[in-house]
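Researcher: Quick one. four chains, 556 residues in total.
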Amino acid sequence: MSEITRFGISTDSNLLRKFDQLISRKGFTNRSEAIRDMIRDSLVQAEWEAGSEEMLGTITIVYSHHTRELSDVLTHLQHRYYQSIISTTHIHLDDHNCLEVLIVRGKGEEIKKISDRLIGTKGVKHGKLSLTTTGKDLS
Amino acid sequence: MSEITRFGISTDSNLLRKFDQLISRKGFTNRSEAIRDMIRDSLVQAEWEAGSEEMLGTITIVYSHHTRELSDVLTHLQHRYYQSIISTTHIHLDDHNCLEVLIVRGKGEEIKKISDRLIGTKGVKHGKLSLTTTGKDLS
Amino acid sequence: MSEITRFGISTDSNLLRKFDQLISRKGFTNRSEAIRDMIRDSLVQAEWEAGSEEMLGTITIVYSHHTRELSDVLTHLQHRYYQSIISTTHIHLDDHNCLEVLIVRGKGEEIKKISDRLIGTKGVKHGKLSLTTTGKDLS
Amino acid sequence: MSEITRFGISTDSNLLRKFDQLISRKGFTNRSEAIRDMIRDSLVQAEWEAGSEEMLGTITIVYSHHTRELSDVLTHLQHRYYQSIISTTHIHLDDHNCLEVLIVRGKGEEIKKISDRLIGTKGVKHGKLSLTTTGKDLS
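Model:
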């Protein structure tokens, strides 16, 4: 359907050696195949995050509740988008650290926006967005 | 095993009429039976809340996140007892109101203490503790 | 507003002794006051469970997942009422026992029906319904 | 610290064109930079999934509860690993589809194993593992 192009990548040789080990462990036949796979993944992810189709997602954040008013800020932020947030589960990890997992439903771009706002909040140590489909179109 | 005593209760006649209607709807044969049932329930509840046996409970609270620093206060409070709190689910009900459901595991008296502290926090509109057993002793 | 009636209750004297201890611990001045309080509670509960006002509730059930097809039955049942169930949190208590906490929103009578169906399912060891309001009418 | 290597990738030209658009939207200066970034991500992910350090994760699965006994199978499977699963939130998406989000804590390799087992279960339409750290080592 479409022609094949070839392009060159320059990289640290240490990084490449580790990547080659990973590739062989995962059973890819060569680097091109592995990198095409990663490119496709990143395109699907980007399409979802920019799309207007209804998606489901989980937003996971880790933070310390000792950071002054951070719980307040995160709660206010979530209420602004309350129509897209089905539920938030909060796990008290230890004396200091909180894990919050939001289950979100809405357009990809809306979910992405909520995720960026939460993960970008000062004091949030780590955050991740994981998108999936509503299952309606899956056989 | 034990003798029967009889004692008198004074009450508003309106309240009694409504209670009689409820009793008949629920299929109790008379007031004594219905009240004995309520007394037994309250004793079981009190026994659980004072006990050192391992129990499970849900603590449900409703509050407005607009109350200044209330999210912070509730999060700090929960972290103090983090070893007894399995998870907290937060539902953003509307622009203002939050529902929080804690799933708690521990001695009855410990759960009761956590519940009293949370429900008694200034700004919490409504709260409830519901206790159950771990299922180990149930056939 | 309304006249005072007096009526008699017959009960096991052991039960009454324990109840008297509970009453004094809880700070009620006499049995009539404590029993009027329980009657009022049961009327509020019944009103909520029969009402068409929007309520929030948690339904808590404990069961063994070894009971054949019980997980399947409970999941099917919950899907029938999926529009009223916001989320279900499942805690794997040990090798055998499950705790499930449903957060439910809807008319009181609808929530009561869901709760009765789930708790009445063969194999469910213990269950509880706890109702609260949406907070909209609370100042 | 380490020398630079150059290697070639062959790919469909359509795929490459879309990738170039994504790269420029995301602000990478060239393909090498974007691909090194993806390689590093995949190495971190692989390290986490193979490691014995304590991690946190969410496992998200979508399935139809109409698939015979699937709820039973998934519940049994989760109970086998109950010590690593903090909580499972189940959302009833519609008449047919379920979303389940597990919050998991344990060694990376253990979490990866649980995730592979669940996502690989016949009837599960879609699944995702998202790993994060416990926050202890983050400043």
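Chain A has a mean pLDDT of 91.
Researcher: Thanks, that's what I needed.
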